[in-house]
Amino acid sequence: MTPAEIKIALAQQGVTQADISRALVANPSTVCSVIHSRYLSKKIALAICKLIKKTPEQVFPDTEQYHEGYSQTQISQLRVDEIRQRLAS
């Protein structure tokens, strides 16, 4: 899906990017960056998919990291990267 399609699908469910950022305690710009495929966050991507009732393959077809499971080490590194990005803001 394109970013515009994702935003429309979220709006149809009555959900905003700000709602997602508050619910996941994430920076709003991070949510936007995930929607635009500029930043990887499986947690945010899967929340979006769940909210719009589509699979990760349908929403983010070019991001294979969302299609398969992560090892615990990869999950930890993603969390560290997310924290670093939030601190840099």
**Number of DSSP E strands:** 0
Strand content: under 5%
Outline type: globular
**Count of DSSP H/I helices:** 6
C-alpha-based Rg, rounded: 12 Å
Question: What is the straight-line distance between the termini?
Answer: 27 Å
* Strand and helix order: HHHHHH
| Unreliable residue runs | none
Report the biggest beta sheet as strand number plus sense, adding barrel if it closes. Answer: none
Q: Tell me the CATH architecture.
A: Orthogonal Bundle
Q: How would you name the oligomeric state of the polypeptide chains in this document?
A: single chain
- What percent of the residues sit in helical stretches (DSSP H or I)? 55-70%
Mean pLDDT: 86
CATH class category = Mainly Alpha
Question: Can you put this structure into words, describing what you see?
Answer:
Helix content is 65%, strand content 0%. By secondary structure, the protein is mainly alpha-helical. It has one domain: 434 Repressor (Amino-terminal Domain), CATH 1.10.260.
